[in-house]
Amino acid sequence: MEKFILKGGKKLQGEVFVSVAKNSILPIIAATILSGSKCTIENAPELEDVYVICDLLKSINVKADFKEGSIYLDSSCMVGNEEPDSELVRKMRASFLIMGPMLSRFGRVKISLPGGCNIGSRPIDLHLKGFKALGATIDLGHGFVEAKADKLRGGSIYLDFPSVGATENIMMAAVLADGDTIIENAAEEPEIKDLANFLVKMGAIISGAGTDTIIIKGVKQLKGVSYTPIFDRIEAGTYMVAGALTNSNIKIVGAEEENLRSLIAKLIECGVKLEIGQGFIIINGHDGLSPIDIKTMPYPGFPTDMQSPMMSLMCLAQGTSIVTETVFENRFMHASELKRMGANIKIDGRCAVIEGIKSFSGCNVKATDLRAGAALILAGLVAEGTTTIEDIYHIDRGYVCIEKKLKKLGANIERIQV
C-alpha cells in the first residue's frame, strides 16, 4: 500500500508537460482488435488502466508489448472464440470497449460485466441498444453479457444520453458492418474525435465525429497503423487548478484551448489570470478568488471529471459557490474528505453548496475515486500542516507520476510505501 504525504504552502513555478489522454488511449487500444494486424500507439502514458487493458487484450490472444513509451499490439493471432479474463474486466469499466471491436470483427463476444470507479451506475444499456440496432442478439446472464451476429449491418441509433463509451463502442462495431450507420445524439468529446481519427487512419470511413451526429460507412477490412493520441485535457485542467489554487505562475504544455473552453471560462470567472498560447496555457495566479456556480454537462459543457478538482478551488473562494452534478449521481464522495480538511460543504441530492473558508487544514484522508484523489492533492498543496492521502491507487489510474510532476514545480509531496 502507498500513500501521498503533502506539506502545504509551497508556491509552484515552472513547466509541466501533459501526458496522452487516458480516455483516448483506452478505446484506441481496444480498436486495434479491428485491424487483425500490427498497430503501434506512441507516447503512451504509463498508467494502471493502460496496463490493465493491455493485459486484457493479452487474455484474448493479442500480443501487447509496452516499450520505451510505445505500445506494440498485434491482433492477428485472434480466432474469435476468446473470452476476456473476467477479473481484468471487473477492474475497469473501459474494458467493456473491447465488445464493439470483437463483435464487429468476429460476430461474437462474451464478456463479464465491467467494474471501475464507484461514481454512479453508468449502465451499459446504451451500448447494447446500439449493438441491437446493428443486428446483434444480446444475452444477459448472471454477471456476463453475450452478443452475436452472423453479420452486422448498418442502422440508425439515437442515444437517449450522449454517452462517451456507448458512442465509442457503437462506432467500433459499425466500421466493418454492411452499409451505413448513423449515431444521433452522439457524444461530442475530443476523445470521440480522436478515436474516429485513428479508425479513419486504419481505413474506416467516418464523418461528423465531434458533433452530435456521426455517420459511419462500413468497409471490408482495416489495416494496422501507428498513431499518437491527443493530450489529456483533464490532467491539463488539474494542473491549471493547481496553479490557481496555489496562486502560482506555471506553464501547462499540452493544454489545448479548444478542449478546455468551459474550464477556462470558469477559472476566469473565479478571478484566475491566464495566458493562452499554441499548445500551452500559463496560469498567472489571482488577486482573490470569487465564488462561482458550476453545472456539469456533456461536452462542450463543464466536464464532470473536473468537478472534483474544481471544488477544491471553490472552497477557498470567499462567498457561496454551487456545484450541480448532472452526469453521475454519486460523484460527491470527495466532499466528505474535503470537509475533514475544514471545507464547508453541504450536499443536497445532486447539488453541493460550498461556503468559502480561509484555508484547509492538513489531516488524513482517502481517495475515494480517481478525480476525488486529485481534489485532495490540490487541497493538500495549500493546506496548513501535513496531509496524508490513502488509497492512491485510484489516482494512479489516471495521472502519470503526479507527485514527480508536482515536485518539479516545487510542491512538497512524497509517495511512501506502508
From TrEMBL:
Residues 7-406 form the Enolpyruvate transferase domain. The keyword Protein biosynthesis does not apply. UDP-N-acetyl-alpha-D-glucosamine binds at residues 93, 122-126, 305, 327. Its EC number is 2.5.1.7. Pathway: Cell wall biogenesis; peptidoglycan biosynthesis. The active site is at residue 117. Keywords: Cell cycle, Cell division, Cell shape, Cell wall biogenesis/degradation, Cytoplasm, Peptidoglycan synthesis, Pyruvate, Transferase. One of its GO terms (cellular component) is cytoplasm. Phosphoenolpyruvate binds at residues 22-23. GO terms for biological process: cell division; cell wall organization; peptidoglycan biosynthetic process; regulation of cell shape; UDP-N-acetylgalactosamine biosynthetic process. This is UDP-N-acetylglucosamine 1-carboxyvinyltransferase. Its main location: cytoplasm. It is an enzyme of class 2 (transferase). The modification 2-(S-cysteinyl)pyruvic acid O-phosphothioketal is found at residue 117. PANTHER family: UDP-N-ACETYLGLUCOSAMINE 1-CARBOXYVINYLTRANSFERASE. GO terms for molecular function: UDP-N-acetylglucosamine 1-carboxyvinyltransferase activity. It comes from the Bacteria. Belongs to the EPSP synthase family. MurA subfamily. Cell wall formation. Adds enolpyruvyl to UDP-N-acetylglucosamine. Pfam families: EPSP_synthase. It catalyses: phosphoenolpyruvate + UDP-N-acetyl-alpha-D-glucosamine = UDP-N-acetyl-3-O-(1-carboxyvinyl)-alpha-D-glucosamine + phosphate. It is found in: Cytoplasm.
